[in-house]
Amino acid sequence: MNLMRTSMMGRRNFLRGAGATLALPFLEAAQPKAAKASAPPTRMAFFYVPNGVAQKAWHPGETGMDFALSPSLKPLEPVREKITLHTNLDRIKVPGTDGHAQASSCYLSSATPDELSPAGYPLKRTIDQVIADEAGKHTAFRSLELSCNSYRDNRESVYFDNISWYGHGHVARSMKDPQKVFRRLFAVDEHKANASVLDVILADAKDLQPKLGRLDRDKLGEYLESVRTVERQIERITKRQDDLAELELLEPGKLWTAMRRDEYVQVMGDLMILALQTDLTRVATLMVAPERWDTPLAFHGVFDKPIRHHGWTHQQHKKEVLRDLQKLDLFHVEQFAQLARKMDAIKEGEGTLLDNVMFTMGSGLSSGSLHECTNLPTVVAGLGGGSFSANQHIKHPKGTPIANLWLSMAKIMGANKDRIGDSTGLLGNWLS
After folding, report:
1. φ, ψ for residue 387 (rounded to 5)?
2. In the chain, N or C terminus with fewer CB closer than 10 Å?
3. Global pTM?
């Protein structure tokens, strides 16, 4: 395996990045004897596209089963039997704040207007983190946040560049460098070395504890619980080294700054798939690009020169611009479809990885031209472990909150919540 090592981290830095451990794919040979009869776990992932879509080319004219795919959705044909298209799902909009910042930062929370942060954006806990509270108990990483943002001229705030939030004002920052993602997930030798660091930390804490006051002892207790979590994670990996060696994992070799746009999206998607496949995590988000940035992006094979996606969305009245936006939508759907096909090629239990995943493509805006939040583009690939039927287009009643979809997914994932954001109930016309 091509696993690159870095120097030993200092004690204070260690716990900040010490969630990195490695688990194995759901392979019959790799499962403990007691687990061979168990079903693969259900997982969820999000594929976020900024600035909405070109609406007319996106939405099919037909509803129900075996519907005809729209021009923008044609790349989904190879996996259409495991695709559900949802229309008429809305996100609540808060007046007086930037529409794009809301689109990304509030997409997975669907927070209501009376839950504004001091910065003006409702930053409640997002659905991925709500689900990770339960799903993360069984995995090395409670969640994984990735982004294909190669910009170096960060002119926008954190609200435009992240879709996952632990809670009020506490962002789950996405990782952008594929090599760093790989090392965080799979740097096995470093984890072995970290085990000895943990021994030192625990010994120091034992000596220190009698000298502390009550409040400091409480803080130290919380710290030690984090240490023990890491300790348990390291123990998991050291027990399964022989099985791990068979995976022959390779670190991404090409620098992300030198990658074509499709290469960048696919390598980050591949890392996400690998993390889901190996049960490193059951919850992941992949942001294809940040909201609103006007720095030109190159799309090789699609456009002759770099384009400004956000600026285009405000010129959709021009036929040539609308055609280009449709080309960009097609590019994004192609990337999503390719990742879905990869999941469907991975055998798992009696089916495939895609059978046990809810992989959602969507945007926090329906159209970037007017910052609209109604009829959001929403495609779910996968069967969620058999929790719902696919190969269908469900046209929900107008005004249905997209939070109803998040609430339904939470139920499927075992996080029994009464409400998420502005949800009004489960999507009964979708769940089996």
Report:
1. -80, -15
2. C
3. 0.82
- 13 within some domain: no
What is the rounded CA–CA span in Å between residue 75 and residue 379? 12
Query: What is the C-alpha end-to-end distance of the chain, expressed in Å?
Result: 42
Q: What's the sign of the alpha-carbon dihedral 361, 263, 304, 337? A: negative
User: Is 423 within the bounds of a domain?
Assistant: no
215 domain residue, yes or no = no
User: Taking the alpha carbons of 232, 236, 241, 247 in that order, is the dihedral positive or negative?
Assistant: negative
Tell me, what CATH number does 255's domain have?
3.40.720
Tally the domains of the chain: 1
Alpha carbon distance 172, 162 (integer Å): 7
Cα dihedral 415, 416, 421, 422, rounded to 10, equals 140
Give residue 316's domain range.
24-187+246-412
pLDDT at residue number 65: 93
Tens-digit pLDDT profile for residues 26-35:
433 334 444 4
pLDDT digits (tens, 9 = 90+) for 300-331: 889 989 888 888 888 888 899 899 999 999 99
Mean pLDDT along residues 133-151: 87
Mean pLDDT: which of 201-205, 298-302, 378-382 is highest?
A: 378-382
Identify whether 77 is part of a domain.
yes
d(CA 298, CA 303): 7
